[in-house]
């Protein structure tokens, strides 16, 4: 499958007709490519002429041409006061507050479309207290990483998927459209500018966290579609969080905790998905757990673990080894790039067995914590792990569910056999020990 082709959830019946129509209407107002096509149609066809009831023909003005987001218009202002790079494992790195020397910004207005983007020194944003994002959560973002490979190159991992998913998120939250390819060009430019210094070649295996974000900057209190928006991209220092001692400990959510629901927006990467989960997350941390395992419905359907997708490897009662994760159809989980990659690699490399391993059936279906508990009791649960950008592939060692402590096998080591295999394959692609089309090389700049 081409890495540039993301498939956002297509089961439109799970989104209300009103929401679907609203997204289309928002696109017609914010997507420059659509406006250009409308203008072209108006100029080249009879649509440019209106006929009155008395037969009089009147010329009709074509649709307004608004500028697209265009990375080629980028202006550059380098930081005159660059900051030092934190040492690996330092408190500065662990704080998740240290960003690189530069950021990228691009403004959009409903009357002028996209303004020229700018690369400029990292620093605070200026927003009015009445700004839409501060009152109505009109915000979406992406999570990506820039890797320093063991071959010396800088790489992104399947960045086309993140850029396409961000477009889908903007459509859901009434923010302006953009060409995903142009967002990728801007991300690449920032990585090329700061990558050499912040990911030095003598630190192979290191990474920076990339956060493209779009907010509604419209300074109006009215509950309405924003007329102004701001796109910005930053690079942050992040610690590795994928190997907690003894595996990740999960606390299954209670009946009064729901992260997402059918017809909602759990499939989009919106800030509104995360804020309401922080109370439960705080409770989990206070009780000695790393994340909440989010369940849905009376049947305790498994959805996500924290902000990551969740996988189990178990043996069916018929003896078949399966890799199982929740499906996308109900639109209550994120179409994670790491999730998608795990599924594709598992189908390709585990679907036929080999390497001393049994054939693994890869399954996307609804499953419940009751099924997981039965698999533990019957000795059929082989391992479990989470998959996402921040926590990468993180093995699960323990799940607390409705007063019961379920121990998850980890193969006697740091991770189960299948977890370790999948994690190793992905690391090879991300850090360049395996040459693969998913690894997107960034040509760094020297200044």
Structure description:
By secondary structure, the chain is of the alpha+beta class. The strands form 3 sheets. Strands 3, 4, 5, 6, 7, 8, 9, 10, 11 and 21 form a 10-stranded mixed β-sheet that branches. Strands 12-13-14-15-18-19 form a 6-stranded mixed β-barrel, surrounded by 4 helices. It folds into 2 domains: 10-43 and 62-80 and 88-240 and 431-447, D-amino Acid Aminotransferase, Chain A, domain 1, CATH 3.30.470.10; 248-415, D-amino Acid Aminotransferase, Chain A, domain 2 (Alpha-Beta Barrel), CATH 3.20.10.10. It is built from 10 helices and 21 strands. It has helices at 17-30, 32-44, 91-94, 132-136, 159-172, 180-198, 278-286, 337-349, 369-377, 417-430; strands spanning 49-51, 57-59, 75-76, 102-109, 113-114, 118-121, 139-141, 144-148, 154-157, 207-216, 228-236, 248-252, 291-296, 301-305, 308-315, 321-325, 360-364, 381-388, 392-401, 404-407, 439-442. A hairpin with a 5-residue loop joins strand 1 (49-51) and strand 2 (57-59). The protein is globular and about 60 Å long. The longest helix is centred in the middle third of the chain and has 19 residues, at 180-198. It is 26% helix and 25% strand. GO terms for molecular function: branched-chain-amino-acid transaminase activity. The modification N6-(pyridoxal phosphate)lysine is found at residue 269. Belongs to the class-IV pyridoxal-phosphate-dependent aminotransferase family. Keywords: Amino-acid biosynthesis, Aminotransferase, Branched-chain amino acid biosynthesis, Pyridoxal phosphate, Transferase. It catalyses: L-leucine + 2-oxoglutarate = 4-methyl-2-oxopentanoate + L-glutamate; L-valine + 2-oxoglutarate = 3-methyl-2-oxobutanoate + L-glutamate; L-isoleucine + 2-oxoglutarate = (S)-3-methyl-2-oxopentanoate + L-glutamate.
């Amino acid at each position: 499958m081409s890495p540039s082709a993301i498939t956002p959830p297509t089961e439109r019946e799970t989104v209300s007709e009103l929401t679907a129509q609203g997204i289309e209407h928002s696109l017609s107002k914010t997507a420059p490519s659509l406006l250009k096509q409308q203008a072209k149609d108006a100029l080249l066809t009879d649509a440019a002429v209106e006929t009155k009831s008395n037969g009089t023909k009147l010329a009709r003005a074509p649709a307004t041409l608004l500028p697209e987001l265009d990375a080629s218009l980028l202006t550059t202002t380098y930081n005159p006061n660059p900051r030092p790079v934190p040492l690996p494992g330092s408190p500065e790195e662990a704080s998740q507050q240290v960003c690189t020397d530069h950021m990228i910004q691009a403004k959009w207005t409903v009357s002028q479309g996209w303004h020229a983007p700018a690369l400029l020194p990292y620093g605070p944003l200026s927003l009015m207290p009445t700004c839409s994002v501060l009152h109505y959560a009109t915000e979406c973002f992406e999570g990506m990483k820039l890797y320093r490979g063991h071959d010396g190159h800088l790489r992104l991992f399947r960045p086309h998927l993140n850029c396409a998913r961000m477009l889908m998120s903007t459509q859901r939250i009434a923010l302006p459209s953009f060409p995903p390819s142009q967002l990728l060009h801007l991300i690449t430019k920032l990585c090329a500018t700061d990558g050499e210094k912040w990911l030095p070649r003598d630190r192979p295996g290191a990474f920076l966290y990339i956060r493209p974000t779009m907010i509604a900057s419209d300074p109006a209190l009215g509950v309405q579609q924003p007329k102004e928006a701001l796109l910005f991209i930053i690079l942050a220092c992040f610690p590795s969080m994928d190997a907690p001692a003894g595996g990740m400990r999960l606390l299954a959510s209670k009946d009064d905790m729901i992260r997402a629901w059918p017809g909602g927006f759990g499939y989009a990467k919106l800030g509104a998905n995360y804020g309401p989960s922080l109370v439960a997350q705080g409770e989990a941390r206070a009780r000695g757990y790393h994340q909440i395992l989010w369940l849905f419905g009376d049947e305790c359907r498994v959805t996500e673990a924290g902000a990551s997708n969740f996988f189990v490897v178990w043996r069916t009662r018929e003896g078949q080894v399966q890799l199982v994760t929740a499906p996308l159809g109900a639109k209550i989980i994120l179409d994670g790039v790491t999730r998608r990659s795990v599924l594709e690699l598992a189908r390709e490399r585990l679907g036929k067995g080999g390497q001393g391993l049994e054939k693994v059936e890869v399954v996307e279906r609804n499953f419940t914590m009751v099924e997981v508990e039965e698999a533990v009791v019957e000795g059929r649960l082989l391992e479990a792990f989470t998959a996402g950008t921040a926590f990468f592939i993180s093995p699960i060692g323990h799940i607390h569910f409705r007063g019961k402590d379920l121990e998850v096998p980890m193969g006697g080591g740091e991770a189960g056999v299948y977890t370790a295999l999948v994690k190793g394959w992905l690391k090879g692609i991300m850090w360049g020990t395996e040459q693969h089309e998913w690894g997107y090389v960034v040509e760094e700049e020297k200044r």
